[in-house]
# Entry
Amino acid sequence: MYRKFLSALIAAVALLTAATAGADTTLLNVSYDPTRELYQEFNAAFAKHWKAKSGETVTIKQSHGGSGKQARAVIDGLEADVVTLALAYDIDAIADKARLLPADWQMRLPHNASPYTSTIVFLVRKGNPKGIKDWGDLVKPGIGVITPNPKTSGGARWNYLAAWAYALKQPGGNEVKAKEFVAKLYANVPVLDSGARGSTVTFVERGIGDVLLAWENEAYLAVKELGPDKVEIVTPSLSILAEPPVSVVDKVVDKRGTRKLAQAYLDYLYTPEGQEIAGKNYYRPIDKAIAAKFAKQLAGIKLITIDEVFGGWQKAQKTHFEDGGSFDQIYHR
Amino acid sequence: MGWPAFWEAVTAPRVVASLRLTFGASLIAASINAVFGLLVAWVLVRYDFFGKKLVDALVDLPFALPTAVAGIALTALYAGNGLIGGLLEPYGIKVAFTPVGITVALTFIGLPFVVRTVQPVLEDLELELEEAAACLGASRLQTFQRVILPAIGPALLTGFALALARAIGEYGSVVFIAGNMPMISEIAPLLIITKLEQYDYAGATAIAVVMLIISFVLLFAINALQWWSRRRSGKGD
# Structure
């Protein structure tokens, strides 16, 4: 009796594993914090597209968190088929430390492997009581600026570099003046949260500060969630072009046999359908025709790139955010 | 990582400031808990009142609550627009986003350790002993000092040590209320996370090692004190 039960159990387990192995069309997308809504919509669309194209049912799992933390999870063994992170530096780290993908991963997809872009804008309280128009207003005495800690938050690094670039591009601007400007700006920061969502909560729920430096898509989401009677968006004269890149993780997809699917998943981001979803979620589509559709919500803004002003992420990270970098210096004077 | 690099990593001003803050705030929080935890345990053991069972259960709340939830709730309460923070704001007292806020969070999570270690000992403490002391002419203070304290001392020290150890390693509840300003309100565990975020595993380990050593020395000292106090009260083993 007991033996019979045991063999039945073994048979059931074997059947179950066989079933899951047969339908092994799951994909794990390891992403960063504010893409939750974007990928929820995109995954559903891609599953439908893939079913129509190949007849296979695909289940896409998502994982979200701080960009650096997510990269570390992949390095430490989280089996991500694709990574869609906040900055190239974090995917570089996966290539560099765990050798899960080749060093030239960013050349494999168009547009620096970034199917959508974003930028940094200001979120201020309704009616903009402190009259904040541009970066220059942030260093005035009595202005509270909310931004996360660039050491722990990818978004905060974009904020920091955008402020630096603004000062650099002013008439007579140079590295010394830029550092002074950023130091003055951070003297106005009362709280350094560890992540972008934390800063949004500090600004919105705790009522601290006059202006929040935020991802454009986070800012629009905040306005949508809270209503335009609480906060409004201010677009500065200049900001930074944030390119959140995507990549297949080669070693993982080869091991799991999901390369074709993973590649199709990323390619679909570049199709008009994928671009449309990015635009709907307040990202800037790279497809010009689709971008034109969203031109009204995504204001024209002069965007500088990290490559032209800072010489790429590796260099920017080293100069500004490593221990002893410019961010440490402005706190250690 | 060689010795010079290790030394440089752990003596950076930011690291030193964070270690001072972590151990300072933890010691203060554990001391507050030793006093008020004893009071709570005393009231729960010696008095009967309406809702006592509920209060007794509430003591365990910091154990059960996820630390992030505790941190966010405390921040909401103590921020300038919060229930308690709003009352303190007019007097210029800021709790959230200052080292005071960190101490508040550490006190919150440490309280049950003291209460739960002292409570059973107090329950076993015979009232007759105190009555005998009173009969022999001891004042209430003398009774407390000479009769009650030696009996509950070891348990109280254990509770203090547990609360301290928990506070030193605490991360989740503190990061929300701390404000995380370099040199002012950055706790050492946050710096470890920061280092990890930069893929500086060696630097993170260096800070962790220093924390481990200081914690070990502290706990060793507390245990030595306990051993000494037990010997002095004639119950040495």
User: Anything to note?
Assistant: Chain A is about 50% helix and 15% strand. The interface with chain B takes residues 66, 68-69, 72, 75, 93, 97, 149, 151-152, 189-194, 198, 201, 205-208, 321-323, 328, 331-332 of chain A (CB under 8 Å). The two ends of chain A are 78 Å apart (CA to CA).
